[in-house]
Amino acid sequence: MNISKKLMLIVILTTAEVSITVYSAFEIAKGAKFHQLNFLHLKYVHQLTKSVKKIENNIPIDINTIESDILLIRQQPIGCIEEINFLNHAIMKAINTDHTLTICENDIEIANETLLSLDRYRKGELSREAFLLNLNTSLNGFNKNSEMFEEPIRKTVSFVLMTLIPLVLIISFFNIIFISYLSRTISSSIRNLTLLLSSKPDSTINLDDELDIKTSGELKALVIAARQRIKNDLLNIENSIELKEIINSQTASLQQANDELAQFAYRASHDLKSPLSGAKSLANFVIEDIKAGETEEASRNALVIYQQMEKLETLVVDILLLAKAEIGNEDRDVIDFNQLIIDMKERLTWLMKDNPCTLETTINLSVPVKSEKARFAQIIENLISNGLKYYDRDKDAPYVHFDISNEQEQLIITVTDNGIGIPEKHQSEVFDMFKRFHAETSNGSGLGMALVKKHVEYLNGEISLHSTNTGTTFEIIIPMDKLI
After folding, report:
1. Domain boundary at 296, 327, 358, which?
2. Is there a single domain that holds both residue 164 and residue 291?
3. Residue 407: strand pairing partners
4. CB-CB contact of 452 with 379 (8 Å)
5. Is the pTM value of this prediction over 0.90?
6. Residue 45 to residues 38, 104, 136, 142, 422, Cα–Cα distance (Å)
7. What mean pLDDT comes out for the span 399-420?
8. 67: region left, alpha or beta (phi > 0 left; psi from -120 to 50 alpha)
9. For residue 412, which phi and psi values (nearest 5 degrees)?
10. Exposed / middle / buried, residue 404 (Cβ in 10 Å: 0-12, 13-18, 19+)
11. Contact of 56 with 143, CB cutoff 8 Å
12. Which of 76, 265, 318, 397: CA 20 to 30 A from 165?
């Protein structure tokens, strides 16, 4: 199983665990709600009893107070019925406590009959003595229902506690063990590749065999892509009179590629391990919180686990895109840049919503551009999204301008903004992997600009930037002979 599938499995397992934990917490809390409803039922029955005593002592009848008490009494069994969902009903039926619903329905029926009697008394259709008799009969029914209600609810709540808490503990324990195992296999794979790439060459070791044994999936694809590129370059210059100089250059390039891969493997291992370790610790806190009955704290920790998994998923997707950036696609079509911009805006809805930046696009092409749509979509989306993320909040009219045109034999793409800019000391690192210069503004993977550069280089183009504290401009120039 490759890394992306392992991480996706971790996300699914953690999401399932969080969902079950949160649901269990709410179901456990529901037991307290049932007891509260019965307490309020008794409270309002007591209030009605005092009103009846006044009538028996020949004190004038307060119709409005009696009606209010009866309505409040009726609201408690209504609330109980509304709280009981399909699963609660199934549990009650299994443990023979489903007559709780019958008790609630009977209580509502008594309340409705009492309200009808009160209405008849108000209209003069019922004597004071008959009305008092009806009220006493209703009080007896209400008190009897309260006593009958408590035992089945106590039994149901006890069953839920004894069932859900062990279930949550078992699932959490399984998840911790399984996630730890997957984390160890991911770290081991990355560590093996790092050691292989950083070790000194040995003529007795076949690199292909070592790659097959120690790597798989995306990491192996990265190494193969780098080696294939270098191999192709060497084949193209095999008969050149400058063969010796070029071989030396390619050897240095190979060493640089190996160093970059080693750095990538180390950084990826760190960035992948961090949210996994955090999620593991938080999962343990969730277990402790549930044991202590602190459901709100458990829910907050569960939400943090979910956010960590989303961050992990984003990093995996970016790693996959970076791995594929140097692998060509034979499917080349004429690109509709207007539609490409529309699709990009839909994907960036979350970022553009409530964003004060004005996005302006200008498309001025005299000839159709034929290439891989996905490459241009990723180039444009990364550049524009950066402009939207890092806008200057102190400026009255923040903007991002996108322009694409062709001049002579070149395609020119320009993205300009008046945002916070890139510090001069970091501008040489903009296209490096895992670089983020404004972490307080955005918490992306740090692979976006590295991906843009990979695509531009694949198209034999060049990318440059100019940035100050008044804004940033990226300019991409691609030869048209690659796009027709």
Report:
1. 327
2. yes
3. 410
4. yes
5. no
6. 10, 15, 11, 7, 70
7. 93
8. alpha
9. -120, 125
10. buried
11. no
12. 76
Classify residue 430 by its DSSP letter: T
Whole-number pLDDT of residue 221? 66
215 and 72 assigned to the same domain: yes
Domain that holds residue 362: 333-482
The single residue listed with the structure tokens 């890394």 is 3
Please say whether the beta carbons of 97 and 84 come within 8 A.
Answer: no
Number of neighbouring beta carbons within 10 Å of residue 149:
24
Report how many domains make up the chain.
Answer: 2
Residues β-bridged to residue 401 = 360, 416
- The answer to whether the beta carbons of residues 364 and 403 sit under 8 Å apart is yes
Could you tell me which of 144, 196, 146 has the C-alpha nearest to residue 40?
146
Whole-number Å distance between alpha carbons of 48 and 53: 9
DSSP states along 223-285: HHHHHHHHHHHHHHTTT-TTHHHHHHHHHHHHHHHHHHHHHHHHHHHHHHHHHHHHHHHHHHH
Q: Is 402 left (phi over 0), alpha (psi -120 to 50) or beta?
A: beta
Give, rounded to a whole angstrom, the gap between the first and last alpha carbons of the chain. Answer: 40
- For residue 183 the two structure tokens come to 């984390």
Q: Hunting for tokens 């569960």 — which residue is that?
A: 302
The predicted-structure confidence for 376-407, as pLDDT tens digits, reads as follows 988 998 899 889 988 888 888 999 999 999 98
What residue spans of 325-402 are helical by DSSP H? 337-347, 349-352, 373-389
Task: DSSP letter for 438, please.
Answer: -
> Could you tell me the CATH number of the domain that includes residue 381?
3.30.565.10
What Rg value do the Cα atoms of the chain yield, rounded? Answer: 35
pLDDT at 476: 94
Q: Select from 301, 327, 353 the last residue of a domain.
A: 327
Residues 409 and 302 in one domain: no
Q: Tell me, what amino acid is at 52?
A: V
